[in-house]
Write a structure and sequence with these properties.
This protein has 359 residues and is of the alpha/beta class. It has helices at 27-30, 35-48, 66-79, 93-107, 112-117, 121-129, 139-152, 172-185, 198-207, 209-214, 226-239, 254-263, 268-284, 292-304, 314-317, and strands spanning 54-59, 83-88, 156-161, 190-196, 217-220. The longest helix has 17 residues, at 268-284.
């Protein structure tokens, strides 16, 4: 039920308020597919069909969509009935292998008796590898156990979110060796996919080049084009839409989206943050549409925080005429990202788009 605050925009609420990555249930609805997603789709399909195995790195700046890609992969695995382990990587390597082992145990389709008294060999080996001896753990043994366990449950996905959470730097060598050993033990139908910042992966591969040769695909997430930004906003607006027969972008127009995307530097999370503020500004000032001028006023107001808010443009403050529709600038669907765009790198050095595949 609407509170009336957003009625003028045909919305029940502010659709940009929740900036967190979507749940597994709705991630496919709000996801804007880019060219890199087609490359990922091919890899995932080959694994699900047990035609190949892969170690994949998803890299991008904060808010670029790394976690969303992992959640999308998780949703696809569940839809296909594949084995799935999803782990938010903790700061310590020993805790990471423990979380992975626990995830495998929970995902194993075993009854209580079998899990306790007669677990399969892969589960016993993984559980033993996850228990530190004398305060330390063997990353090579753990990696082999992970690769064997995932292959035994093919098709299966192991998804490791935010590998850069590992701190301090002394935690990284063990995880690098673990991933290398896991990759060596993978069989067709097994996928290990992890996400991290570009500079983190660059440093790891520089220190452990052998791991770099095991990574079958490095996917660097690009920034959004204005058309892709418009599609993302339109999908978010649709979730709170009161009226069906209305411009998908209303109350925003193409000019507003262009200014929003420029201010966000093409970063999806930043785009939604700014759109949230702009919609609140437009609501507070009772405008009937959001054009480039309203966006700029919002940006200026957030920077200067004046005592008296500036007046909105007369055009934006004028209500639509009776029985008229807002100007139609629907965002195109399925517009691929161009290869020429520069990806967001968090200030890191450039990385190769893909590492060589092992023979």
């Amino acid at each position: 039920m609407t509170t009336g605050r957003y009625d003028r925009f045909g919305l029940t609420a502010n659709p940009f308020r929740d900036l967190a990555s979507e749940s597994l249930e709705d991630v496919e609805i709000f996801h804007v597919r880019l060219q890199v997603d087609e490359s990922l789709r091919t890899v995932k399909e080959e694994v699900l069909e047990k035609e190949n195995h892969a170690l994949v790195a998803i890299v991008g700046a904060l808010g670029a969509g790394k976690t969303q890609r992992l959640k999308l992969a998780a949703a696809e695995a569940r839809d296909r009935g594949a084995f799935l382990v999803y782990v938010d990587v903790p700061s310590k390597g020993v805790d990471a292998i423990g979380a992975i082992a626990e995830g495998f145990s929970k995902s194993a389709r075993l009854g209580g008796f079998a899990r306790t008294f007669a677990p399969p060999g892969w589960l016993r080996d993984l559980g033993a590898a996850a228990k530190p001896r004398g305060g330390s753990w063997d990353p090579v043994r753990a990696g082999k156990a992970i690769g064997t366990a995932l292959s035994a449950n093919a098709p299966g996905f192991l998804l490791l979110n935010d590998l850069h959470n590992l701190t301090p730097a002394t935690e990284i060598p063990a995880i690098a060796r673990m991933l290398q050993a896991a990759s060596d033990a993978l069989k067709p139908g097994a996928l290990v996919m992890f996400s991290c910042y570009p500079n983190f992966l660059a440093a790891v591969v520089r220190s452990f080049p052998a791991l770099g040769t095991r990574i079958n695909r490095t996917v660097t997430l690009p920034t959004l084009t204005p058309d892709e930004a418009g599609l993302l906003l339109a999908k978010k607006l649709l979730a709170k839409r009161l009226v069906e027969e209305i411009d998908p972008l209303f109350p925003f127009d193409a000019g507003a989206v262009a200014v929003l995307n420029t201010a966000a530097a093409g970063n999806p999370r930043r785009l939604l943050e700014i759109a949230d503020r702009v919609l609140e500004y437009a609501t507070d000032h009772r405008t009937y549409r959001v054009d480039a001028g309203v966006v700029q006023l919002t940006l200026d107001a957030s920077m200067t925080a004046p005592a008296t808010a500036p007046a909105v443009p007369a055009e934006a403050a004028r209500p639509p005429t009776a029985r008229s529709e807002p100007s139609r600038t629907p965002p195109p669907s399925g517009v691929p990202a161009t290869a020429a765009r520069t990806p967001a790198h968090d200030g890191s050095a450039a990385l190769p788009s893909a590492s060589p595949t092992r023979p």
